[in-house]
Amino acid sequence: MDGPLGARAIAAAEAIASSLALTCDQAVVLNNSNKLTLRLLPCDVLARVAPTPDNVAQREVELARRLAEAGCPVGILEPRVSPAVHERDGFAVTLWAYYEQVRAGQLSPSTYARALEALHTGMRGISAPVPHFTTRVESAVQLVADHSRTPALPARDRELLARVLERVGGSVVERSGDEQLLHGEPHPGNVLSTPNGPLFIDLETCCRGPLEFDVAHAPVEVGEYYRGIDPELLRDCRILVLAMITTWRWDRNDQLPNGRAFAAQWLGELRAALGGKI
To answer: What pTM was computed for the model?
Structure first.
């Protein structure tokens, strides 16, 4: 959200914070893609701003509240205001606690795995109306098939992605055993390393599926420490996830910085992982 749209989004977040008695005279942009993430100061609140209000934000707020109550390692909503989706000037704004991150060293694979296990344990006790993971796979299938939405995707790569999404996606469904509530995208960008331990954020992608689908989003080393998963199913899930995230980057409306460079890199990794088998 750049230019006038970004300025309006920031103004909406600042106005909402002020209306809730949170002192705000500065907004620092932390992330700018399909949503705008701001650190509001001096109240020190994290604001996430979406251009179109929808029920996804409301579902995320409700899940965050319930997961925090269950003791899951998740970022919490701003405790000084009521948990809600705030709307202003065509934007949906949610307010979250801001966490200082530990800068010394990276999160170890074992710590990452234990935190993800703790999140999944808490999620087992929660029933929520979230989509099945195959809904997200199908959206990638449709994106690959729609040339008007992916006009720059080369024919050879389009064919590869279509085959992987169909065949590997089908294999994952057939081999999935127990399914439960998942984060949906617990990759390193959605994990905060805080003085009190790792916390998972961005719950808008929550879905139902096998644990391996979530673990596939984490670095490979994390899967080596996560207990009780099927290594072959995890391998297939990694290939499926790689095909999905590569597909997103070819969307003509994708706003991830350097998205096409990532797409080229991931296509190479996908072909290497497949070893010519598909």
So the answer is: 0.92
